[in-house]
Amino acid sequence: MSLLTSLLRMRATATGNALRASHLRHLHLSDQPLMLLALKRTGPAARPLAVMLGTDPYRPQLLIAPPSGSTTPMLAALADTVTAYIDACQRHSEYLPAVSDNKPARRRHTDAPQILVPNPQTVQHLKDLGDALRFRRADDQNSQSVQRLGHWLTYLTDRADIPGSAALIPLTSFLGMHWVTGQSPQEDDDLATLLAWIDPPRNTASGRDAALKTENPATHRLAGPATDAAFDNDHLAPLFDAHARTRTQGRDQTRTLAELERLLAAYMQPTWDLMWHAYALLQALPEATGSTRRWDHERTAFTDECIHLTQDGRPRPARDQAVAAAVRLARMEHAAAAFAAERAADDPFARAELRTTGAAFGGTVTVIDSRHTLRGPTGRPQWRPRLIVSTTDQLRMEPGQPLVCHAHRKAAYTICDITRRGGDTLVELEITAGMGPAARPNHGILPEPGAFLVFTIAPDHYRMPEFPSRDETPWTHGGPPPDHPDHTDEDESDESQ
Amino acid sequence: MSSLDARLSALRGTAPPTPHNARTLAALNANPSCDRRSLIDAAGIDKAALAAHLGLPQPLRKSKLALDYGLAFEHKVTAQAGAPLVPLLRQALGLTLSEVAYEDLNSVGSDEDKSPLKRRYSRTRSRILSAAHRRPDLHRTLLDHPVLRLTVAGHQVYLEPDIVAFQNEGAFYIVEIKSFPVIHGQPDPAKVAAALTQAAAYVLAMRELLADDGLPPERVSETVILINPRNFTQHPTATTYNARQQIKTLSRHLKRLRRLPELLDKLPPGTTFDLAPGPDKNPTRPRGELTAALATVQASYTTSCRHHCDLAFHCRNEARHQGRFETLGTAVRDDLAGIDTITTALALTDGRLHPARDQQDITQALQQAQRIYEDLQTDTA
Q1: Which residues of A234-248 are buried (b: 16+ CB within 10 A; e: fewer)?
Q2: Which percentage of chain A shows pLDDT scores above 90?
Q3: How far is B50 from chain A (nearest CA, A)?
Q4: Are residues B215 and B305 in the same domain?
Q5: Looking at chain B from residue 167 to 206, which residues have their Cβ under 8 Å from any Cβ of chain A?
Q6: Which of B65, B68, B303 is the closest to A184 by Cβ?
Q7: Is residue B343 domain-shared with residue B314, that is, in the same domain?
């Protein structure tokens, strides 16, 4: 968090209303996302209680796991819906011509799945569920689709760890990118209070009052995956007991199951509506240009996963081996750096944040030396125009620092000199890229005198580090002896909970 | 009854005391600087009842389903005289022998017994001491549901660890049965930390027991064993942890509790947190009076209080009224170190207040942030 968001949090506390942070949406938002609200059973690691899902706000599908016995039929129904949604994304593909020898021509799906969940805890729950399901034996139709569901959940939750990915998005984090509330980030994890701050109902004086009202223990409910203790004690436990009684007495269980369904439907409906409310708020935001590229990337990743599933299909191991883990980490770092750089280029708010952290400065162009040239190593003159920017920002940079500017995306700059004069700082910059050769100079690169520009620290040039192949990996890091069995728990993933 | 006890029970009022337990001791570790919590816990006041009377959300209410599940897992582990447990401990502790004596101390004392905890404690004590005094290589004992006693601020507090294991090299181990899962070898780190802090209380209590009898307290190992369900099953798995850090911190905080008389001295005379239950057991104390009484003791609210304190929402509302940074999370608090309230910070930002010498840097940074934000609104950036 930057000092700017800290300041906005304080202002929001003082006024009682949330403040807009970024005005641009940095994640692609599908026209037909799969909204998914999951509840887990209190106690067991990953036993679902209920899932409400669908692409239509008015007709959600509600799936209920029975209080005791196998959850496989319920999971199979969930698998059917999720797989149908994912399959629909594979229907069309586009042709991408070869770019280079490394990138041959290939096809890419024109769509990718997007699942929206209320909060980061649900992502964790789905990850656990994926871990539990993807190693299941696929003996019959039902368990096959459940195993496939486990595979997709693992893929999606894995994508959710990657900055800038839009495959599985927790709505509270998404809203948090655009609004700053007057409560703590921990409290922002609660969808109901977060939305109360952001978009209070008409009859409340402020977001703060609305949030306080939302917290009323009589009406407040968690947005999953955990259920409130009060709900467990007052509603679920008696119903579970009743169900157990009918079970032992060999009586018909349909009545208690129908009652459970009614209870959970009523419990989940308000959160379901809030999720669509959040979706509507987010959809109204203009999309940043960089999000298209990231969505392209998302579709590539999705296409690759589809190919992996049809050609190989082995589940991801329970724990990555050393090289795979290092590759994953490198990918995440790369994605984080690229996401940060693209946000800085697209979004004035991101640049403002960088200015308060010292990773950027903004100022007015006062002098342009368009004639400045250098002698290159071969003795040919090189055109290197210089500018002087006057800024009042606290500068924490040294000469030699490479910079980029959002207004001239192709250009690169280096700080030549920094002089402090009174409260202002004069920064002399040299344009080092994007100006064209001396013979055919690109004058468009030069800013207007008096223009206000923000310069941010240029992102490091990224090269994926080289990792050893499996044969060259020492056994301490998961290399040969080959075909070391993974510790899957197939024999244990029974329904004995 | 000591005068300290009298003063504490005056704070509590008519309700019977709710003694400290491993959970409240663990909470002490989480927020040791909170005077309000120290005092209320020392007086044995039911915080949940306070919160309920004040109409606050109760984030700590226990789910019956969670309790049932935990109990079922514990029964599974300790079934058949600890049969599933022995191989796990043998592996975790390197027990070499196959025979292990198992004793459940839960059944001691009849239902009519007014102080079963006391009875179970003396039984536990004699078992442990006899095991400790005899030749160590002959006695390998598992004590299920023992009761230990720890002195907290001059009071005897009874604690119930799940199991105490006695190993053949003369060391005692605390074994805790917890129902959160270890998935692919990875448990939830926050839950492990909480479990270890509770275990630290047991280690300290056990050491106290040995030390009282002139035995070296180091015979209680700082290695703690957690038994959890493995992956998505109910099959138990044992993991050993070193709880040295937790033991050290907890004993330090317990020492700090000696300053209770000082805290009591600061209270205005006649202060009480009594709920004044009427004939129908419902509290009759006016809420305003109760909040005023609470306000006489300094709280130290943090956003994580809701994970271990029933009064978290009360303290949060109070902190909000005072404009404290703690309500906005640690990041904001750290960003604005050196300034006391949100009102002051905003006044400094807007130039309505002149910064003190040590506030100049942060004021300048805030004003710059404000200027940048204004640039943003006018679209020049």
Answers
A1: ebbbebbebbeeeee
A2: 23
A3: 15
A4: no
A5: 179-181, 183-185
A6: B303
A7: no
- Give the chain B residue whose CA is nearest to the CA of A407: B381
Query: Where is A433: in which H helix or E strand?
Result: strand A424-433
> So what's the pLDDT on residue A278?
93
Given CATH 2.40.30, say whether it is the number of domain A347-457: yes
pLDDT band at B150 (very low <50, low <70, confident <90, very high): confident
Please name which of B23, B102, B84, B26 lies closest in space to residue B228, comparing C-alpha atoms: B84
Q: Output the pTM of the full model.
A: 0.88
| Set of chain A residues whose Cβ sits within 8 Å of the Cβ of B229 | 45
- Which of B64, B335, B376 has its CB closest to that of A352? B376
Q: How confident is the model at residue B97 (pLDDT cuts 50, 70, 90)?
A: low
Q: Which of B311, B331, B351 is the last residue of a domain?
A: B331
Q: Which residue ranges make up each domain of chain A?
A: 3-318, 347-457
- The token pair at A467 is 């990792």
Asked which of B219, B254, B289 is the last residue of a domain, the reply is B254
> How many residues in chain A?
497
Domain, as residue range, for B313:
3-61+267-331
CB contacts of A45 in chain B (<8 Å) are 180-181, 183, 229, 231-232
State the nearest Cα–Cα gap between B373 and chain A, in angstroms: 7
Residue B260 included in any domain: no
Note whether A368 and A449 are within 8 A (CB).
Answer: yes
Q: Is pLDDT at A491 greater than 50 in this prediction?
A: no
In the prediction, which pLDDT does A33 show? 92
Cβ distance A45 to B232 less than 8 Å, yes or no, reads: yes
* Reported ipTM: 0.85
Q: What are phi and psi for residue B182, nearest 5 degrees?
A: -105, 105
Contact between A362 and A391 (Cβ < 8 Å): yes
Co-location of B313 and B367 in the same domain: no
Same domain, B168 and B224: yes
Higher confidence at residue A114 or residue A141?
A114
**pLDDT, tens only, A122-152:** 999 999 999 888 888 777 878 888 888 989 9
Q: For testing the chain A interface, which of B302, B328, B366 should be mutated: the one with the most A CBs within 10 Å?
A: B328
